[in-house]
Amino acid sequence: MQLPLSFTERMSRLCGDETALFFNALEQEPPVSIRVNPAKLFFKPGFTPVPWCETGYYLPERFHFTFDPLFHAGGYYVQEASSMFLEQIVKQYVQEPVRCLDLCAAPGGKTTHLLSLLPAGSLLVSNEVIRTRSQILSENVIKWGSPDVIVTNNDPAAFADLTGLFDVIVTDVPCSGEGMFRKDPDSINEWSEANVNLCAFRQQRIIHDIWNALAPGGLLVYSTCTYNIRENEENIQNMIRQYGAEVLPVNCLPEWNISGAFAGNEPVYRFLPHKTPGEGFFIAVLRKPDRKAGHFRLPKNNSRKQSKKKEPVPGAIKTILKDPDHFMYELTPKGYIAFPSALQDMYTYLKNRLHIVSAGLLLGEVKGTDFIPGHSLATSQHVNPQNFEQWELTWKEAISYLRKEQLSSPTDKPKGYLQVCYKGLSLGFVKNLGNHTNNLYPNEWRIRSGYLPDDPKTLL
User: Fold this and answer.
1) How is 275-312 classified by DSSP, letter by letter?
2) Based on the number of CB atoms within 10 Å of its own CB, is 295 exposed (0-12), middle (13-18) or buried (19 or more)?
3) Does the N terminus or the C terminus of the chain have fewer Cβ atoms within 10 A?
4) Which positions ≥6 away from 425 have C-beta within 8 Å?
């Protein structure tokens, strides 16, 4: 690996006696890790656990994730192990329902993790500023299957006027990517000291834009996938000086070999590849001063009166869910959606201020007399099992379905909409017409590769 000279000189100063170990680790193959969806897979894989994440596992080798139907069903997420340390922060400091913002969320690792971690009744707003990446984020959120989330596509500055709205803001900010050098060698060519400084200023601007949206006493989680002090410790010190933030300690076992600060003595957490099995990562949690002013108050004329003006939703639509009273319903340009009724006021407030990509569960749309179920209905845990008969597929049939190919009609299933499954997990819907089926898998998500491995390495 040919590294920039200024990078090697700086890391040699920072690592000291461990310099040779650090650079040797960069020459090794990076570990592969996944995080299981506890709402869908109720078993513990026989792999080495990630110590700081109850549902995280290191794989012995890289699997054929593209050809694993369980991956497409939201049974697990491929995520870098170091970033799973977010779990320790949430478990230690978030005990009650919160309003949480995942600001730079694509492709969805921390968002799906938060959906499994936040206390019941919490609202997660998952944002991505780049439009194409926000679509990927929405896809991964839909596959994960939780309805308590709103995916948005906004610049961080759009949140500046939402004074005190969020109890927790997670900012995995864009960075120079030094921690990903061995995983993404192309990033080496993009690295420069000038880019490090540019990233540091961008990170400060992002924090400035969203600080007002953090409630007094609220938590800001700041993380990067880079090693340098400029983007890490110096930005933490800037938040202390400029905003009066308090850096909080996180419970951490010594055997995890997580490193501390390269500069100063604040409780920050740095993952170095020669000490912890994972990529380079930095994370810290800060508390905003708790002042009386600045707490969010929902406008009195916000949602309920507005929602009554909406077109009424047919009662039959509500029976699609097994817990219909848990949701409010709305007809949108994409079709009927269901959103947790306890969060209705917040949903109405935000949809008038942010660009929403997806929210809650897209139940489907009505065309003539036909109701076409939406894909997020198939991947959720709230679909009424009495409404759709399940059709268990073989691995090859599942891959054909995920390629959006036409499947032969099952002889033992009724006509109409069937929920197709693999190993008990729902992949989506087909419409059984008797002599053939219509594949309803989203076209933009389909597997485009024509390759088919003879012996696929999959989770099961």
Assistant:
1) TSSS--EEEEEEE----STT-----TTSSHHHHHTSPP
2) middle
3) N
4) 40, 41, 69, 70, 73, 74, 75
CA neighbor of 343 nearest in space, from 144, 97, 104, 118: 97
368: left (phi over 0), alpha (psi -120 to 50) or beta: left
Residue of 450, 409, 404 whose CA lies nearest to 427: 404
Helix (H, G, I), strand (E, B) or coil at 57: strand
Could you state, in chain order, the average pLDDT of each consecutive group of 10 residues for the chain (460 residues)? 94 96 95 96 87 96 94 97 98 98 97 98 98 98 97 97 97 96 90 96 98 97 98 98 98 97 96 97 97 80 52 80 94 94 96 96 90 94 91 96 95 94 96 94 94 86
User: Which of 233, 309, 315, 306 shows the shortest CA–CA distance to 268?
Assistant: 233
Say how far apart CA 126 and CA 176 lie, in whole Å: 22
Non-local CB neighbours of 452 within 8 Å, separated by 6+ positions: 67, 396, 399
Rounded Cα–Cα distance for residues 202 and 224 (Å): 12
State the pairing for strand pair 149-152/123-127.
Answer: parallel
Q: How far apart are CA 229 and CA 162, in angstroms?
A: 31
Say what the pTM is. 0.95
* Strands 123-127 and 99-102, bridge-based pairing: parallel
**69/57 Cα distance (integer angstroms):** 18
**CA dist., res. 24 & res. 21, Å (int):** 5
- Give the bridge partners for 332, in sequence order: 335
Question: Residue 287's beta-bridge partner residues?
Answer: 219, 246
